[in-house]
Amino acid sequence: MTSRIAQAPVELNDVTAAALLPPRPARGHKGTFGKLLVIAGSVDYAGAALLVCTAAGRAGAGLVTLATLESLQPLFATKVVEATTLSLPEDDVEEVDPEEALARILDLELIALVVGPGLKPSLSMTELIQALLAGDEDGDPMPAVIDAEALRSLATVDGWAAEVSARCVLTPHVGEFRRLRAADGHDPEADGDLVGDDSRRVAAARAAAAEWGQVVVLKGARTVIAEPDGRAAVAPFENPALASGGTGDVLAGTIGALLAQGLGTFEAAQLGVYLHGMAGEAVRARLGDAGLLASDLPPELPLARKRLTEIADAAGDAADVVT
Question: Any residues with CB less than 8 A from the CB of 141 and at least 6 apart, and which?
C-alpha cells in the first residue's frame, strides 16, 4: 500500500476549494461565524494589524478583536472601524506584561487566534506567545495562525514545537521557514532550492509539518500547504503582483477567519491560500504584474468566496439531479 506521504500533493482548483467552504446558515449571527483575536501591530507596523483585521472580516469572521499594547490602543481604535480592540497591559514602554495580558485574553470567549504580523520583537511578547500556544489545565488552547514576528520568536526558543499544544497554521516565507528549521538543528541548506524547485518545496514543507506536528504553509509562487500526516496541497498561483509588503498579513487574516468559522487547520489553510490567490489574480487582471497594494486584496475576498459558493451550489444541484 502506498503511504500518504508518498502520494502526489493535491493540486488545488476552484472545485476542490469550493468543497472546503464552511456553511453560512441564513439565520446565522455574528456569534455563529466565530470570534477571532488578532495580536498584531506596533508603532512602526500599524498597517499589518489593520490588514489582518480587514481581511478577517472580509473572509467572513463574525467578530474580530485586535489586541494591542494599552499605550497603542487609542491609535488603533481610530483605525479599525469594524473590529473591537483589547488593551494589553504593559510593564514598560511598549513592553507587554505577559502574565496580565494572558489573563485578560483568557477572559474572552474566543474561537481562534492570529498572532505575529507587525509585532515588535521582545522577550516579553515571546513569553506571551508561548503561553497562549501552550494552553493550561483548564482547557485546550484555541487554534492559531502563527505569522511573521511570532515565527521569529518561536525560532529563538529551543525545542519550541514540543511546547506548543495549540493546533496551528504556520505561515512562513522561505527565509522564516529556514530559520525555524535551523532552530531545530536542521541544516536549512539541505532542503535545497525552496524558491524555484516545486518538488523540493513540497518535500521540505511535508518534513517540517511532520516534525513540528503542525500545518505548514510555505508561501511563495505555488504555495504549499502541508499537514503532519503527510498530506499536502499546492496552490496554482504564480503572481508577481503579490510581491508587495502586507500581502502576507492579508493571508494570515483570511486563514484566521476560516479557523474562527470552524474549519480545521489543514482545511482553513488550503481555502485561505486559495481565496487569497483568487483575490490576487483579480487585482492583477486590472492592474497588471506591478502596483498591487495589500489593501487591494480584502475587497476581492468576498467576491472570490461568492464565486466558489456558486460552484459549490452548482455541484450540489448536479448531485441532486443524479440521485
Answer: 132, 133, 134, 135, 165, 166
DSSP, residue by residue, 105-120 = HHTS--SEEEE-TTPP
pTM above 0.85, yes or no: yes
The pLDDT profile of the chain, 323 residues, written as one tens digit per residue, is 334 445 899 999 999 999 999 999 999 999 999 999 999 999 999 999 999 999 999 999 999 999 999 999 999 999 999 999 999 999 988 899 999 999 999 999 999 999 999 999 999 999 999 999 997 656 679 999 999 999 999 999 988 999 999 999 999 999 999 999 998 888 988 999 999 999 999 999 999 999 999 999 999 999 999 999 999 999 999 999 999 999 999 999 999 999 999 999 999 999 999 999 999 999 999 999 999 999 999 999 999 999 999 999 998 766 655 55
